[in-house]
From TrEMBL:
It comes from Clostridium scatologenes. Residues 18-270 form the DUS-like FMN-binding domain. Pfam families: Dus. GO terms for molecular function: flavin adenine dinucleotide binding; RNA binding; tRNA dihydrouridine synthase activity. InterPro entries: Aldolase_TIM, DUS-like_FMN-bd, DUS_fam, tRNA_hU_synthase_CS. This is tRNA-dihydrouridine synthase. It comes from the Bacteria. FMN binds at Q75, K143, H173, N204, G205, G206, A228, R229.
Length: 319
């Protein structure tokens, strides 16, 4: 795919390969890693506006960042336009340059409460959320799916609504809410949406290789791609796509992530994040199941380091 800079509102991002918001993964250390590997923009995981409103500590932690992170992008989820606006304008986001609005999450509890992908069925409300959040004077992006069900796909209509309401960029996950995380994305839906708006359109869904990224760009005409699950399995996809020379392997990466996670978060958070990340990074390797059990059994950081040394040293020998 052709790598280029992208202008999002008044912000220029260095390249058009983005890291998706991923609950449980895209904390500060992982965003720093992916930026270093070449990702042009890295979002926090979704942050619930109601939880923020009630000053929930765990939710606030998701917004941790430092000046080291050059362009700061957070994702907000909610269904009440007034609360969404209030939170977007609050001090919680004062350090952030970009706020993404989640209009794609398919999870049953989220959907039932009118949040995430439920907004695909209420364009009026979705529009007033975008307009309200825009008053924060931040750059506003929207991430949505192509529809709730396959017999009612609305990507182009929704894209036009986002643009008319003030969104500076949209990311379209080419699957419907009913498809959850499986099946081939509807490339034609993304293509149609791209053809009716002038703001940048990022295509997401099912990119698990360089070839998939090329195909996504070719079939949709999108301005860039966003990678989710494959980024936690193989973060080097960013350096591969952006032709960035990186002298690191997964062993180096996992230990750097431990250092960052323990520096900035408490041990409980760091341990559970590292376990989750490691089990993705070791995907497809021999002896995976045995190591995974040992990985999840480890109760403290020294134990975790020992088992990770064993897992990722083995990998080094193979490489
Ligand atoms: C574990 C997990 C957590 C996710 N968390 C979020 C999230 O917080 N916000 C969001 O917009 N999408 C979230 N997603 C959806 C991804 O950003 C992405 O749209 C989806 O996985 C499709 O991309 P992929 O096929 O490259 O994985 C999540 C997906 C997974 C698998």
């Amino acid at each position: 795919m052709k790598i280029k800079e992208l202008r999002i509102g008044n912000i220029i991002i260095p390249c058009n390969v983005l890291l998706a918001p991923l609950a449980g993964y895209t904390c500060y250390p992982f965003r720093i890693l992916c930026s270093e590997l070449g990702a042009g923009l890295c979002y926090t995981e979704m942050v619930n506006c109601n939880a923020l409103k009630y000053k929930d500590k765990a939710t606030q932690k998701l917004l941790f960042t430092t000046p080291e992170e050059k362009i700061k992008a957070a994702q907000l989820i909610g269904s009440d336009p007034r609360i969404m606006e209030k939170m977007a304008r609050s001090d919680y986001f004062s350090k952030f340059d970009i706020i993404d609005l989640n209009m794609g999450c398919p999870v049953p509890n989220v959907f039932k409460s009118g949040q995430g992908s439920a907004l695909l069925g209420d364009l009026k409300k979705a529009s007033s959320i975008i307009k309200g959040c825009k008053k924060s004077e931040k750059v506003i992006t929207v991430k949505f799916r192509v529809g709730i069900r396959e017999d009612e796909m609305i990507a182009a209509e929704f894209a036009k609504m986002c643009e008319a309401s003030g969104a500076d960029m949209i990311t379209i996950h080419g699957r419907t809410r009913n498809m959850m995380y499986h099946g081939t994305p509807y490339f034609d839906q993304i293509e149609q949406a791209k053809s009716v708006v002038r703001i940048p359109v990022i295509a997401n869904g099912g990119i698990f290789s360089k070839e998939d990224a090329d195909k996504m760009m070719e079939l949709t005409g999108a301005d860039g791609v966003m990678i989710a699950r494959y980024a936690i399995e193989n973060p080097f996809i960013f350096s591969e796509l952006t032709h960035k020379k990186i002298k690191k392997d997964k062993h180096t990466i996992i230990f750097e992530q431990i250092d960052l996670a323990t520096k900035y978060y408490d041990e409980t958070f760091a341990i559970s994040y590292i376990k989750r990340l490691a089990s993705f990074l070791m995907k497809g390797k021999k002896g995976n199941n045995k190591y995974k059990t040992e990985l999840y059994k480890s109760g403290n950081m020294p134990e975790l380091r020992d088992i990770l040394e064993e897992i990722f040293c083995k990998e080094r020998e193979k490489d």
